[in-house]
Amino acid sequence: MKDKYGFDHASDEVIAVRAELADEAVQALQLAGLPAFRSDHVSESRPGAVVHVHRDADLASAAVSVSWHGDGRLTDAAMAAVAAGDLHAPDVRRLGSVALHMQGALAKILLSAGIIATLSNDCIDPGDVLVFGRQSELPPGLRPTYVPLSAPVERTGRGSLRGQIHIADDSDGLTEDAAGPFGLTPP
Questions:
Q1: CB burial string 66-84: b at 16+ within 10 A, e below
Q2: C-alpha to C-alpha distance for 61 and 83, rounded to whole angstroms
Q3: Is the CB of residue 12 less than 8 Å from the CB of residue 23?
Q4: Which of 28, 72, 160, 167 is most buried, most CB within 10 Å of its CB?
Q5: In angstroms, rounded to a whole number, what is the distance separating the alpha carbons of residues 50 and 133?
Q6: What is the pLDDT of residues 140-172, one digit of tens each?
Q7: CA distances from residue 184 to 125, 169, 172 in whole angstroms, order as listed
């Protein structure tokens, strides 16, 4: 099926599978406490995580994506600054900073829910998170693995590492291979 511009659209069956994945992404984000919704169900001007189902038949990237939409007041202030030619206004930087921080958070939340997601490397929509599917659909050898954060190091006070670290007697001198590239001569 082609749209009015001649681009091929995915079949209804393919769109249904994409919509199911989008619904899972919405649910994962909502369970994390974030406002999240599909772009075709609610107005995109609403703040929160907006999940898009792409209808294109051939995609170079993911068929589902997520973007963060902040409060309209910040967006309006940033757009007014851009229209006035002030690209370095605090509101412009803040809007971009929030979008990038949320992009990372959205990807991590989706990954924790078993949904394969990654940051977009697209200059048109740099704040998007691309959603590819469920980890359970991958063979076990290809599933992403998580390394848990290590337990905090227990500090016992000054000198607690005494005897565990050795510093060579000549460690404060420059070796010839380290000094050479800087044009220095070792002592």
A1: bbbbeeeeebebbeebeee
A2: 31
A3: no
A4: 28
A5: 17
A6: 666 655 555 556 656 666 776 777 777 777 666
A7: 48, 21, 15
